[in-house]
Amino acid sequence: MKSEKKMENTQKLRKLLTKTGRCWQLYLLLLPGIVLTVIYKYIPMYGVQIAFRDYNPVMGFSKSPFVGLRWFIKFFTNYKSTEMIRNTVLISLYSILWTFPIPIVLSLIMNQIKLERFKKISQTILYAPHFVSTMIVCGMLRIFLSPYGGLISTLVAAAGGNTGTGLLDRAELFRTIYISSSVWQDTGWGMIIYMATLSGVDITYHEAAQVDGANLWQRIIHIDLPELVPMIMIQLIMSFGNLMNVGFEKAFLLQTDLNKGTSEIIATYVYEQGMLKGMYSFSTAVGLFNTAVNILLLIIVNRVSKKAADISFI
């Protein structure tokens, strides 16, 4: 019995090697990406252990004293922890609420445009902001929102609003500024994947629906939208899987002493504690907690999607 199983496994291995040999050029092409992923993503996981140690660079990872959950307890007993978690979750949820449906709507609209030249120009205009670096975007926002001659601040002042402290320094406006700039920068790029999906819809479906008397709205609802559902669910799973990963660069570059009440998120706190204060173990523990929450959310949303729409990664 064991010999038969061994022979079966050997045959499977030979078939696998044969198939791999036929496409060795493609696997060779994949090799650099796999190597880089292992080097920069998997090997560094060895350093996660410092979240459970009082890390000393001189002593190294394994020789630093083990302290268990000490740094996690310190984070959760910190008076700022609740505020940072709330800020991170709210910015992420509001970002999903606004930046997730808009690309879908835009892709459905763009798909109905018949003038190819106008369509290409519109797509280019919508895609372009994605290629502007985050630092430049934040610089533009600081200039536009400056209380000293900034375009938006000037318009608000002309309308009778108060811009004395600067719009960017007002904590209650930070989330609106952050999310609206993300919509402007990422909506066009997010639309690409839905446009690609819609390009695969058989045109005969629309022709048959028109013959049956279906108007444009009915064709979008009953033909285009169902084709997008699998991709929408996959994107939604990925969005919730990154719920705690609010963009560090933009939050950090737009942060001021006055708006910290809403702009201080877990990512900026980890940077401050680890890079500026040298509390490597503490910052690693906070980052590990952040990653654990993301993994848990990914599993939950994936299972919900599997049961609700029979769409999942696994």
Question: What can you tell me about this protein's structure?
Answer:
It is flat and about 70 Å long. It is mainly α and 314 residues long. The model has no long low-confidence stretch (mean pLDDT 85). The chain folds into two domains: 1-50, no CATH class; 69-309, MetI-like (MetI-like fold). The protein has 15 helices and no strands.
**Helix content percent band:** over 70%
Total of DSSP H or I helical runs spanning 4+ residues:
15
Q: Per CATH, what is the topology of the largest domain?
A: MetI-like fold
Tally of strands: 0
Rounded mean pLDDT is: 85
Order of helices and strands: HHHHHHHHHHHHHHH
Q: Which regions contain 5 or more consecutive residues with pLDDT less than 50?
A: none
Q: What is the beta-strand fraction? A: under 5%
Assembly of the depicted chains: single chain
Biggest sheet descriptor = none
Q: What's the gyration radius in Å?
A: 25 Å
Structural class: mainly alpha
Number of domains: 2
CATH homologous superfamily caption of the largest domain: MetI-like
- The CATH class label of the largest domain is Mainly Alpha
The coarse overall form would be flat
Please tell me the CATH architecture of the largest domain by its name: Orthogonal Bundle
